[in-house]
Specification:
By secondary structure, this protein is mainly α. It contains eight helices and two strands. A hairpin with a 2-residue loop joins strand 1 and strand 2.
Length: 170
């Protein structure tokens, strides 16, 4: 992984230009920040910089291993963005047919491959519908099940019953 104190981040780009602020945001993940709403930090800034309106950047691929590594320290404490952000980045990479730079590829793939096991470890805590949906989307994306991951990420929880009724009535 690109170390958080590496000067390499100044040469990577995110949605706003240089990714030099990303390491500081990633470092905050070790405290398992609570996501009380969409503007909770550091998640708001990480989402804005690494997955901006469906676009991803070189810093996105360098950041995913750090997100997953932070989650791996205590999977039962992970909030939904620990699963959703890597899933969203992988879906965008696939959708836009972006190749991950060789310097990040091994760590990026290893991080994605770790998600199902971390999901199993996160089962030690109660899951609400949103968390379950996020975890399942991350597992699907990590296993290249892109249509399923997209469905799980895009469907609103409030629409689940209606979609199921529609599907059963076909």
């Amino acid at each position: 992984m690109v170390e958080l104190d590496s000067g390499r981040w100044r040469h990577l780009t995110d949605a706003y230009g240089t990714a030099e602020l990303v390491p500081g945001l990633l470092a905050q993940l070790s405290s398992f920040p609570i996501e009380s709403n969409s503007s909770s930090e550091p998640w708001f800034s990480l989402w804005s910089r690494l997955y901006h309106q469906g676009d991803v950047y070189p810093a996105s691929f360098a950041a995913v291993p750090h997100v997953v590594a932070a989650m791996a320290t205590a999977p039962a404490n992970a909030t939904l963005s620990f699963f959703l952000l890597p899933a969203a980045i992988e879906l965008a990479r696939h959708q836009h047919q972006i190749e991950v730079a060789s310097e990040f590829l091994s760590d990026y793939r290893h991080a994605l491959d770790s998600i199902p096991q971390l999901a199993a470890q996160a089962a030690a805590r109660p899951w609400d519908t949103n968390f379950c949906q996020s975890v399942l989307a991350a597992i699907a994306a990590s296993r290249a099940q892109y249509d399923l991951a997209r469905l799980l990420m895009d469907i609103e929880t409030s629409d689940l019953k209606e979609v199921l009724e529609w599907y059963q009535s076909r």
